[in-house]
Amino acid sequence: RTHVRLVLKPRARPLHMFRSKKELVKILRDICAVEMHQILHRDCSLNNIMIEDCEGRSRGALIDWEFASRIASNNVYPADGTGTILFMSIDLLHQMGKIQLLQSQTGTLEHEEAAHTTLTEVEGVGHFYRDDLESLFYVFAWVCIVFKGPAGTRRHLDAIVHRPIGSTDWLPEEWQGSQLDAARCAKDKSYFFSEHPQKLGLSEQFDPYFKDLVPLAEEWYDLLRKERSDRKDAEFHNTRTEELRFDEIATLLETHLARLSDDEKGPQFMVSRLELHESLDKLNESFKELVDKLVPPKRVREDDIEDVVPPKRCKVR
């Protein structure tokens, strides 16, 4: 006996089709609640986080569970399905970079014993809660930088004349890479959480619509950076440290959720307002170009030139 279900309409909305900032934060909080049940999704990325509308309310949902796993005692899982490069954690990127290097060297090894050792070293990767939490942070920051409002209203970063201060790239551009570029992506993200904090880049690069969410992003950044620093110190002193948990991030999201207004205008209003601003900007540019063409450049008179040229010095006898 086979049960068949026909899907006749979309089951959910993509994350970037959120209707308000409050809904965006709420969906991320819901995702934290999903992963608190001793399960690792292992690919928390933009395309795998959805918004379900149910009985007049919305809730967060994760899709694509083929690489998900219950928490293993040794926290080691198959290397395939470790995530999407853009949203992968630094530790996972480091591990994937080493695996790619070892695999590239396997064909040049002269001894079978060495080749066998290489293969056993890449059988699995260490994956922890903190890795999925870091991935969620990248998703959150990516949305707030790449989009300029609800309902999938996207920014055109290439068209923005003033690029981020102290950087030639936007953060999503720095985090982007191919599946074979894990080591380089790990280096860029490591710098983002380095001893010289890049937290200011968040407030600078977030679209003005998301300015209310900058404090949330900065506190989330601080938690990830502190956990990373504490873990390095513990490894150096051969001690143990507490791992960052989903309930900590869920509490942080809940706190900022309570601060957001329920009176935000609907997505259609926001999109219309953004389109109006863009139209006004284009109209101003066209008006300036027209004025430049119609108003002739000011001629400089000879009297003006004489006034500008300094008088010759007289020789003193």
Tell me the total number of β-strands: 7
- Which series of helices and strands comes N to C? EHEEEEEHHEHHHHHHHH
Task: Note poorly predicted spans.
Answer: 109-121
The average pLDDT score comes to 82
The spatial strand order of the largest sheet comes to 1-3-4
How far apart the termini lie comes to 120 Å
Question: Quaternary state, please?
Answer: single chain
What would you report as the Rg, rounded to the nearest angstrom?
Answer: 27 Å
Helix proportion range: 40-55%
Structural class: mainly alpha
Range of strand content: 5-15%
Structure description:
The protein has 317 residues and is mostly helical. The chain is 49% helix and 8% strand. The strands form 3 sheets. Strands 1-3-4 form a 3-stranded antiparallel β-sheet. The protein has a two-stranded antiparallel ribbon with strand order 2-5. Strands 6-7 form a two-stranded antiparallel ribbon. Helix 2 (90-106) runs antiparallel to helix 3. It is globular, with a radius of gyration of 27 Å. Mean pLDDT is 82; it is low at 109-121.
